[in-house]
Specification:
Layout: H1 28-31, H2 46-53, E1 57-63, E2 66-73, E3 80-84, H3 98-101, E4 106-110, E5 124-125, H4 126-139, E6 150-154, H5 156-167, E7 174-178, H6 187-201, H7 216-220, H8 234-242, E8 245-249, E9 255-259, H9 265-268, E10 269-270, E11 287-292, H10 296-302, E12 314-318, H11 325-328, H12 330-343
Parallel strand pairs: 3-4, 3-6, 5-10, 6-7, 7-11, 11-12
Antiparallel strand pairs: 1-2, 2-4, 8-9
Keywords: Hydrolase
Protein name: Alpha/beta hydrolase
Organism: Phenylobacterium kunshanense
């Protein structure tokens, strides 16, 4: 039973250095945080159990020929919130956050094309992501109160929210970015992907480009965050990881498990028009950035990486958090969002 599982020791967020890495050099609690549980779900606190018990309305919305996954909480007629996840993630990354926001809002979490249970595409474009978000917002009732919705996006999803706010300000009332950078994946993540691609190119098997694991336990043992970081809330990692998997045929026959996201999404992403020629656009949409005080995003920006967040965007720090704020400090994120949205944008 989950309650009988002893939580393994985790790397402390004060001492772990999540700078450039090679995967074999990562400590086991970062490289494979769920492996010690051997497929069992870690024990979780009451607040989390309550949140995931609030089953959303699950639907699919059509946009640009793709079916997009949408999870919705809260009554129609309340102000609308649209939640957008990070790269290779999915809508259920918000499933333990959204129910607390749904007390005052109609809340939809979407899975971007190529991720979660949304369809994959031959190419991914910033403009399409923006139009996808608008289609989901309209289809799930986020305009029903007579106002435009507020968009909230984490990481890569925050980048898409920023792009939509700058290019299509008529789509939203305000925007909240959660630990969002604009330089793409860290260099070490790109190197890891390159190494993996080279390795798979030399394997004459049917499991390319997505590896298929024979059991749920084997798949969960391979789950880790990108960029890599320590995470103490293993029950959240387990919840996210299980919903990141789909059944897939094994090369030797039968079925196993593979990750849902399109492994070639980053290579298929059309970046043209997405970075405003390196110039900060004039924002018409009120915007705030919440970030983790130990985040790689903030570290990279401090070292000189280009950012579009200047004096136009107010920033609020979430203490004791790395990049994945909803995993490190979920209740602090809930409190920050609820307080913010009660008084802003006015």
């Amino acid at each position: 039973m989950a309650d009988d599982v002893t939580k393994p020791a985790a790397a402390t967020k004060e001492t772990y250095d999540d700078r450039p890495f090679h995967s074999e050099d990562l400590p086991p609690e970062v490289r494979a945080p769920l492996a010690p549980y051997k497929g069992e779900a870690p024990a979780s606190p009451a607040w989390f159990q309550w949140a995931i018990a609030q089953e959303p309305e699950r639907s699919f919305v059509g946009s640009h020929g793709a079916r997009l996954e949408a999870l919705t909480w809260g009554e129609v007629g309340r102000p609308g919130l649209l939640l957008v996840h990070g790269n290779s993630a999915h809508a259920d990354w918000w499933s333990f956050i959204a129910p607390y926001l749904a007390k005052d809002f109609r809340v939809t979490a979407m899975s971007l094309a190529g991720m979660g249970d949304s369809d994959w595409r031959e190419n991914y474009r910033f403009h399409d992501f923006a139009e996808d978000a608008d289609a989901v917002a309209k289809a799930t009732g986020l305009f029903a109160d007579g106002q435009k919705p507020i968009y909230i996006g984490h990481s890569f999803g925050g980048g898409q929210v920023f792009f939509a706010a700058a290019r299509y300000p008529h789509l939203m009332r305000a925007a909240v970015l959660v630990d969002t950078g604009f330089g793409g994946p860290p260099p070490e993540v790109l190197e890891e992907r390159k190494k993996r691609a080279e390795m798979l190119a030399n394997i004459p098997s049917a499991d390319r480009p997505s590896r298929v694991y024979p059991t749920m336990e084997a798949a969960l043992a391979r789950f880790r965050l990108m960029p890599p970081q320590p995470a103490e809330n293993h029950y959240i990692l387990d919840f996210i990881a299980r919903r990141s998997l789909k059944r897939a045929p094994l090369p030797e026959g039968g079925e196993g498990y593979a990750w849902k996201f399109d492994p070639n999404m980053w290579d298929k992403l059309d970046r043209s028009g997405g970075f405003f020629d390196g110039v900060m656009p004039k924002l018409e949409v009120p915007m705030i950035h919440l970030y983790g005080d130990k985040s790689r995003i903030i570290e990279r920006r401090a070292s000189g990486e280009k950012s579009f967040l200047d004096e136009q965007v107010r920033e609020i720090e979430i203490p004791d958090s790395h990049h994945h704020v909803m995993i490190d400090q979920p209740l602090a994120l809930v409190a920050a969002l609820r307080t913010l949205l009660a008084t802003w944008p006015g």
